[in-house]
Design a protein that fits this description.
The strands form 2 sheets. An 8-stranded mixed sheet has the order 1-8-7-3-4-5-6-2. An 8-stranded parallel beta barrel has the order 9-10-11-12-13-14-15-16, surrounded by 4 helices. It is α/β, with parallel strands linked by helices and 537 residues long. The chain has 3 domains: 2-22 and 147-233, Phosphohistidine domain (Glucose Oxidase, domain 1), CATH 3.50.30.10; 35-141, PtsI, HPr-binding domain (Enzyme I, Chain A, domain 2), CATH 1.10.274.10; 264-534, TIM Barrel (Alpha-Beta Barrel). Helices cover 44% and strands 15% of the residues. It has helices at 35-64, 66-79, 82-95, 99-115, 120-141, 163-166, 187-195, 229-238, 277-282, 294-298, 306-319, 356-361, 363-376, 392-411, 428-432, 434-440, 448-455, 474-489, 507-513, 525-534; strands at 2-4, 6-9, 12-20, 154-158, 174-179, 199-201, 213-217, 222-225, 266-271, 287-292, 324-328, 381-386, 420-425, 443-446, 493-496, 517-520. The protein is built from 20 helices and 16 strands. Helix 14 (392-411) links the parallel strand 12 (381-386) and strand 13. Bound molecules: phosphoenolpyruvate and magnesium ion (MG). Phosphoenolpyruvate binds at residues 290, 292, 331, 426, 447-450, 497-498.
Amino acid sequence: MDYKGKSAKTGVAIGKLHIYHKNENMVKREHVEDTDSEVKRYEDAKATALSQLKGLYDKAMKEVGEANAAIFDVHQMLLEDLDFNESIKNIIVSQKVNAEYAVATTGDNFSQMFAAMDDEYMQARSADIKDISNRVVSVLQGVEEAKMTGDEPSILLADDLAPSETVQLDKSQVLSFVTHGGSTNSHTAILARTMNIPALIGVDFPEDCDGKFGIVDGYEGKLIIEPTEEEIKKYEELKKKDEEKERLLQELRGKENVTKKGTKINLYANIGGVKDVASVLQNDAGGIGLFRSEFLYLESDTYPTEEEQFNAYKTVAEMMAGKKVIIRTLDIGADKQVDYFNLAKEENPALGYRAIRICLDRVDVFKTQLRAIFRASSFGKISVMYPMIISVDEVKKIKEIVAEVKAELDEQGVPYGDVEQGIMVETPAAVLMSEELAKEVDFFSIGTNDLTQYTLAADRQNAALESMIDTHHPAVLRAIEMTIKNGHKGGAWVGICGELGADTSLTEKFIEMGVDELSVTPSRILHVREAIRNANV
Ligand code: PEP
Ligand code: MG
């Protein structure tokens, strides 16, 4: 019987099948009071894991050479990664939980993040992250590493194999490996190639094949269980062939956002949901300056529940591991129509019933979202901001509602963090009132997309007006400058999260104006960083 999969290493193996079940680290979330000693427990386990990895590196150097041993260097680097460690410690301290839970959660988050990246090499690192977090959890739990091979040379079958497992394979005992999971870019596959062991991935082999006779066809990517005499003959003839492939290592970039004259600004990213966080981190943003929460509503058939929203915000906060995450409250209406809100058709939707206007009307919907945001704030560094503000009065009303939400959470004993509050400055009214508004909030984020359309009285959705939408119009730039100056005067820090923030021809100008933060689409982060570093201000 044939089972199709994908070849990770060509070649042929003929022999007995052996299924390997690894020890899964069962991790429970436990409350701890003494977070200092829990952090210390983590540090100790990390040190042990690092010395294990060093041992594996030395072993691999001897057995499979430097190119393949390098993965254990990479594992050591990943385990010492600042963000990874910050996330673990942050989870222990902010959630008062055990180190195992913090390590497993961080491992899950980071590996998901890598898996979601576009770059195939980075996707393959997802397994490495899982591998190192499992290693640390094993150390914390005092679990012995599982023995991999049987007592005779066999074809090893497993759900998935981590690189640290493949390198421990005693080649004299292992003819090949075949896994359910894995990818052809994983180091497992790379190691297998150099070790000259045929390997298949993505094979849905049956559990009852353990101990049966089989053939691995690494050319066609199939596993044959209980082959015929002719098949055995054919594959014995094919057994001499093989191929090699190499993957280049790609470095993650990371430099400061500092001008030639030493001015530093924050460079954050704009996201629409959890799935975008991977590219935020891949592009090395310092935080999330705009989380367009309305996408949670747009993707749903009905009002997203408090729990659904909480989970999304919490996940993002945890993935960002202590870096700032600014969640913008619901900004629907105008171009973002959500059926179940049953909004009336409007003559001038951009000037209509939208964003904070709906929230201040539908206080139930607003409170559900605020509860979710505040609850999630104890899992990271969350800030909240409100869209389409035109008056101090609106901000005062919002603050009353926020106070009610906090009082309810207090009453219910639900924890929340210290949440900075800010507003989008995206209407001319907000610009003109910016000095007064700044006294009411912690920060401003200038929404240049809407600010441009309202300042120039030109609908941003109208293709016929395309040539009129001059984002460099002096009125727009003057509005931005005024907002920054007044914001600072009133004690608020000021960022730009509209598309103009990513316009590198204006970066120097914005810094001159005194902007504190730029929040741009993740793929523009490094371009803007370059412009900041080239700026002579
Ligand atoms: C803006 O208006 O500049 C902004 C950032 O918000 P949105 O594009 O979602 O309206
Ligand atoms: Mg806007």
